Amino acid sequence: SCVGLRNLLQGLSFSVKCYSRHNYLQTICLCGRIKPQKCHVLDCSGSTCTHRTVPPGSILPWRFFSCKEGTKIPSKRKQNISLTTSELLYKNLLKSEQENWNDISTRYKALTKRIKEKLEELHNKYMFNSGSPRIRFGDNVYFEENGCIFLSKADDVDEGNVDILFSTEDLGFSGAFIQQIRISPGQRYMAISLKNENSEEATCVIMQLGHFSVVEKVIPSVFSFEWATNDVLFYTSQKNLKCQNVFMTTFTNQKHTKLVYTEQDARFFVDIYCTKDRRFLTINSNSKTTSEVWLVDCRHPFKLPALVQARTKGVIYHVEHRNEELYILTTYGEPAEYKLMKAPVASSGMENWQLVYAPEKKTKLVDLEMFSDHCIMFLKNAGHLYLNVISFVSHSVQSIKLPTWACEFELESHPEHTTSTCYFQLTSPVHPPKRFAYSFKENNLIEQAVQEVPIITNCHTTRLLAKSKDETLVPITVFHNMNSKELHRKPLLVHVYGAYGRDLNMSFKEEKLMLIEAGWILAYCHVRGGGELGLSWHKDGRQHNKLKGLHDLKACIMLLHKLGFSQPKYTALAAASAGGVLAGALCNTDPELTRAMVLQAPFVDVLNTMMKTHLPLTIEEQEEWGNPLADEKSMKYIKSYCPYQNIKPQCYPSVFITAYENDQRVPLTGVLRYVWKLRKAALDHASRTSKKGNCIPNIILDIRANGSHCDSPWEDSLNEVSMSP
Predict the structure, then answer these.
(1) Would residue 577 show up in a list of annotated catalytic residues for this protein?
(2) Burial bucket for residue 470 (CB in 10 Å: 0-12, 13-18, 19+)
(3) CATH assignment of the domain containing 468
(4) pLDDT at 50
(5) CB–CB of 540/462 below 8 Å?
(6) Which of 271, 552, 605, 663 is flagged as catalytic?
(7) Of 428, 577, 712, 717, which one is the catalytic site residue?
(8) Where does the Peptidase S9 prolyl oligopeptidase catalytic domain start and stop, copy by copy (predicted)?
(9) Which of 343, 374, 405 corresponds to the end of one domain?
C-alpha cells in the first residue's frame, strides 16, 4: 500500500554525506593527491568558457596587485530585466515543491522527533567525546573545538591549560566552520580557511601569533594554501568551482601579493601541497586523467617555480621529497595503476624515473605518507585493508593486514616528518572511528585506547562477488545484525556511486548503526566507474563504458535477493550526487527490483547539463561523461542511460530526493524537471492501468535552503536524515 511505501522510506539516509562534526583541522598530506578532485557534476552558474590558444600552464613574471587588504573586487551587476517564461516556470515549480514538502513533513513531526533523538543519542555515545585531531609542532599542540583554535604545551593539553588563538564568533565569522589550518614553520603566523554551509568558496584568515593574536589579513575565495617560509604564503583562488591561479603573499615589512602561475586549460584544476619535509611547495595542475607539477623551493620562494615533468596525456603524477630525491606517485608505465617511483631533483624528467614499489595486481593504493626513513602505504585488496611499510634504510617492505571489519582509513596529520609513529583511524559505516598507531621503532601496530568507545559486536560483515553481464565480478559489502533471523523478510538499503574513480563513502554514520539495530540490511555495491579496484575499475565505467556500472548494480541487487538478503518489495536504493545517474537509470530499466529510492543532490539530467558549455565544470567533466556537442556517438550513448531522458510511463518505486537551493554543482532546475517528468509518467501509467491494489508512488522533493551539495554541518545533516519520510 501507499502507507507501506511511506513506512519503507522512513529513516532512510544517503550513501555519501559530508558531516563536519568536529570541523577537523585538515593538514594535507600526499593522500589528497591520489584522490580525484571533488569537482563532481556541474554548476548552474552563467559564466562562459572561452577557447584559448596559449600554452596550457604558464609561470608568470611577478605582478603586483593594487587591491587593498581584505577588499573584494566588485563584480558587474546584471541589469534588471523582466522574468523570462523559463524563469517564471522555475519559480512556480520551486514554490509548488516547497509547499508540497511543507504539507508532507508536518505529518511526520512525531516520527522525526523520535529519529532525531535516537541519532543524537548514538552521536553522543560514539562520537561526541572523540575530539578533533591535534597538531603537534615541537612542544606546542594546536587543536580545534566548537569554532575555536587552542594552543597548549604538549604536557598540559589534557590538564586544561590552553590559550585561545582564534574564535569564529569573536572575530565576526558567525555561522562559518573551520575547514583547514596551516601553521608557519616558525609558528609566527597561522592561516585558517573558513567555509559557510551555503557556499563552496572559503575565506582564508591569517593570524599573527603572539601574546595577543591579531588578524593580519583576510583573503576571500581561497581553495588551498601553504606556507613556504615564516612569512611567505602561497594560495590558489577559487571562482565558479574552478582553481586556475596561484598567488604568493608576503608578510615582511614590504607586504605584497603576486600572481605566480595560471592554468589556461579549463579541464585542469590547480592546488598547492607542501612536501612532508617542507623542502618544496608543489603546484599541482590536474585533470581527470593527466597532471603536471611545478616546484617552489621553500629556501628560495621568490625564484620562479621549476617544472618536474611536462603533462603527458593519460599520465597522473604527484610528488614528495626526501634527501634531494623526488618520490613520485604515478600511473606512468604498465600497468596504468599507481606506483611509487623516484628521480633526482636536478633531473626530474620522466626518462629518469626509477621504480621503487608497485602494489600487487588487483591491489589499490589508497593512501601514502612519507617520513624521514620510512614510507607507509595504505592498500585495499578484495575489500580488506593493509599497511605496507617501506624502509628506506633497510630497503625492506613489511605488510600488515588490518582488522577485517575496517572499511576505510583516516590518516591523522603528522607535521613533523621525523616522527617515529604514524597515527591513523579505522572505521566502517557501522563501526565508530578507532585509533591505531604504527611504531617504526617497535616495528608493530598498536591499538590506541584513548577513550572508552563501546565495541559493536552484534554486526556481521559479509563480502560478496556478483557476476555482471560481461562476467566481471563486482564486490559487495554487506552488514546486518547477527541476531537477525529470516533475512529475506528484512528491509535492505543498497548504496551505489560509481563515478570519478571515487570509492563509496564507508565512514561511520550514526543513522547506519540505527538501521542495523532496527533490523535493516546494508549493502554497498562497488560498481565500475568507482575506484575500489583501482584506476582500471574507473576507466571501465566512464564515458562509453558507463552502462557497465548499471549492469553491475543490477547484478549486485539480484545476487543479494538470490542469496536471501531481503526481496524487491523490501528493498530501497540510496545514492548521492553522481551516484544518482546509476540509481536513476536502474529505476528506468528495472523498476521492479526496488520499492523505494532515496537520492541526495542527484545528477539525473546528464545530457542537458553536458550540452551547456557555459557551465564552469562542463569541459572538465567531458573526461568522465564524454562530449555530446562534438561527438554524436557520445550524445546517443549518454541519451541511452540518462535518467531524465529515459523516464516512461511504468510502475516506478517511491522516490525521496533532497536538493539544495545553493548547490553549485547539480543545477536545481534539472532536479525539478526530473521530479515533474517522473510524477507525470507515474500518473500516466496509473491512469492506463486498473489493476487491483495499483498505487501511485510517492515522489517527494525536499529543497533545502541551507547546505551545498552534500556538504552540511552535523546539525543540518541530523535534520535531513531525521526528516526523510
Answers:
(1) yes
(2) exposed
(3) 3.40.50.1820
(4) 33
(5) no
(6) 663
(7) 577
(8) 507-684
(9) 374
